Amino acid sequence: MIPGFQVLDADAVAARLTPAAAVSALEAALRGGLDPGASAPRARVPVPGGELLLMPAHDDRYAVVKIAGVAPENPAQGLPTITGGVLLLDARTLMPLALMDAPALTELRTAAVSALAAGRLAPADPHHLVLFGAGPQARAHLRALAAVLPSLRRVTVVTRSPGRAAELIALAERSGLVCEVGDAKLVTEADVVCCCTTARAPLFDGAAVRDGALVIAVGAHEPTAREVDATLVARAAVAVEHRPTALREAGELAGLHAGDLAADLAELVRAGLPMTDDRPALFKSVGMAWQDLVVAGAVYDGG
């Protein structure tokens, strides 16, 4: 046993770092000059049950390697789709410091990235959130968005899983939000639309999103999958985590070039993106290893 080595399960990860604190950690890292492009590209390894995603990153203090399993058939066996672990090491000695639950850390950091962007891109005083999906990422996004958008009052959940919807409604109500199940047509009323699904085809008509609203899409990170349609992409001011990564991995952005994107996350944090009410905003996230690094480090520091 390595002296001081910590094993942190999902509950321990959640207990050590709140969604708001995760947002603050990401913001501080970007303001401090972190370069998202310095992370190695995500490696995909096909295995019998699905695929392994290998994601390393480092800064001056820590190094991290996430091994995430994606097993599409697991839910039929009562098992989670996403599995794996995040190994945190000292960057100087490469001595292991902690092993963290990968699904919990991924949920926390993905939602925090979305919330960080939403703080810059959402319309003033948003009240209505339309949330596609009712799984772990949807729950994480509800918590994170509620933390950074205190004016939210109403949540509409669009899902094919009634059982999970009940859990999400209960979570929203504990946060003081009015929450109900609805359909995709309600994007016409939304201030913020958040897509947290495994859909491979667009979830709604992009023409229905009102000018000035924000759409967040996080569920797809493959060139052949898209949660939002070309109509929305053409209408919107599009922001991403990192231009080359988004153009390589996001199916929604197929055919676009770096100059077609209004901003990346570092630019949003450091300079902001001038927004107007004459078109929607779209934040497309694919997930990057630097986010695991920052949030894993903050979880460890919080112990």
From TrEMBL:
Domain of life: Bacteria
Pfam families (alphabetical): OCD_Mu_crystall
GO cellular component: cytoplasm
Matching InterPro entries: NAD(P)-bd_dom_sf (IPR036291), ODC_Mu_crystall (IPR003462), ODC_N (IPR023401)
Protein name per its UniProtKB record: Ornithine cyclodeaminase
